[in-house]
Amino acid sequence: MSNSEGISHILTNEAIPRTEATITVRVIKSFEYRTERGLVLHKLNLETTTVGGLKEIVRQAIQTGPAWRPYRNAVLDTLKLYTKAHGAKTTNLIINLDREDWILEDDDKILADVGLENETELSFFSRKAYEIFKLSPEVCWDTTS
Question: What pLDDT, in 10s, does the model give residues 6-32?
Fold first, then answer.
């Protein structure tokens, strides 16, 4: 659908098939220092890729990409939905602390079945570090500069 000026009214999360989705994974090394890096994955098949499969795709990118060297020793064991296209974003710049039900617990679940769609953003992090950060979500700032 488009109007007379050629502008489409189809939402971007619906315009691309779930077999060729683009998603962003925020790889979090430190919650306190907001150390994170985004990994954009293109043409990801959400109908066949599992939660565990996505974790392995991200870990492989970290191990092979030269820009990811500082993240290679980070413990990464948990995925959590950050936001979907056209959805409300959290006030926390690094992770959504509000919705515990958005943690993807089951590595065998298909991504489409847990609600992922085109332009979904996820956070990938250490569950232990997340639980500690939730108790006192304070951010450390460098006061020397």
Answer: 555 554 555 567 899 999 999 999 999
Residues 6+ apart with CB under 8 A from 107: 50, 51, 52, 55
Residue found by looking up tokens 């060729």 in the block: 20
Q: How far is CA 80 from CA 21, 76, 94, 143, in A?
A: 17, 12, 11, 31
* pLDDT tens, residue by residue, 50-97: 999 999 999 999 999 999 999 999 999 999 998 876 455 555 567 778
> Please, which residues have CB within 8 angstroms of residue 23's CB and are 6 or more apart in sequence?
40, 41, 44, 46, 116, 118, 119, 120, 121, 122
CB–CB of 36/60 below 8 Å? no
Rounded Cα–Cα distance for residues 29 and 125 (Å): 7
Separation CA 86–CA 109 (nearest Å)? 24
**pTM of the predicted model, to two decimals?**
0.83
